[in-house]
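Let us practice reading a record.
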Amino acid sequence: MPETTTPDPRRWKALIFIALAQLMVVLDATIVNIALPSAQTDLGISDGNRQWVITAYALAFGGLLLFGGRLADLWGRKKTFVIGLIGFAVASALGGAAVNLGMLLGARALQGVFGALLAPAALSLLSVMFTEAQERAKAFGVFGAIAGAGGGVGLILGGVFTEYLNWRWTFFVNIPFAVVAAAGAIAVIHEPAGSRNPSKLDIPGVVLSTLGLVSLVYGFTRAESDGWTSGSTIAMFVAAVVLLAAFVVVEYRVKAPLLPLRVLTERNRAGVYLSLGLAAIAMFGLFLFLTYYLQVVKGYKPVTTGLAFLPMIATMIAGSTQIGARLMTRVAPRWLMGPGFLLAGVGMLLLTQIDLGTSYVTGILPGLVVMGLGMGTAFMPAMSLATHGIQPRDAGVASAMVNTSQQVGGAIGTALLNTIAASATTAYATSHVAGAKSVELLKLQSMVHGYSTAIWWAVGILALSALIAFLAINTGHQGGHTVASGDGEGVEAADSVPVMVH
């Protein structure tokens, strides 16, 4: 393969459509949250079944991402990207037209299936289209900002549609996104020659990884509803461990693995996957608690709740495009990711102080602004480093691992931190019931105590994420011709492929 390639003249136009598709997929993880109470009433969904509207998407998306990433390597990223967009639009139309719970759950699962095709194809297209360091930094700055801020955008749009239109528009909004992105992709995206992986599909790997990841995500979902020691929860976790262990054994032995272990054994990529997964645990949990705090405790309307997250989105975009992208070619990634996660932790630390009378301007806004700035700064180099030194034939599956770590982290965060919050709420209510002035007041005080306790845990998780970024990631800055200095595998790959070097 030649050492240099001519950059695609339409790559910046392509970035617009890739970013649009990524925004659609990321915001869909949260846009339905605010609309869920309305959908529940409209379709007569029971309290016990409502969580499945969220879980159906997470299970299909998280479980099939590795499969989607490998299909992108096999079929070609552009084809996979367009198929994913069209399928996502059809699934969204079905969701918006749902007449009962079964139809809604089927549509959400279908969205997850096509999202699992779309997301890794989008990221791997960027990694093979932007090969010059400065340009790569700018492109991943945009992509990282959208990946980080999309969840918050989903909360805002969910609030606007629910309050001014109806819950069905949280599905229908995806159709114009998908149509524009697909038309643009067909017109301007040109995938570099020789970047496909023509090997056969690893069917045992697909089955074991999908079932293993679904069992893991479902186990945390059961823990939230049934408790950590219930038989169904333990059975799911045991199944996940057995299936994922079998997956690793199969990948070690087959000729054309679904997830080549070389993707995971390079320390920089492994550090990114782990630190991003932990950050997702903290972040998704916080979104959930703040949404409930603002609506239930402070009495905000859905649209006001969504708009309350706007400053965090603004600083996240600023951190990604102005700090991360500008410094990425001058500073080693660990010095952006580590301090970024720590800064986000400081923002969350400010939010542990919430109580019944906390003012938005003085008590919540500073925490959101600081957290957004930190997350944006950390996300940007992380997204780029996820395909650092990777061979083009593995770009799809390496990209899928980033999305997998975020999706699985998000599902774990929601369940884990919810359980911690519920336990703290119950303990507070029990210990303060004797001196309570009113049952309603005690209920709100207990809820806020639960949220605050869970956010403390999120602070600790972000500190761990920062520590992993400092210790595991040892590559130099992503400019000039500095490449990985880990176990040698990253160096060899980066030297042989014009992805990270001039």
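A brief commentary: The domain at 11-201+258-496 is CATH 1.20.1250.20 (Growth Hormone; Chain: A;).
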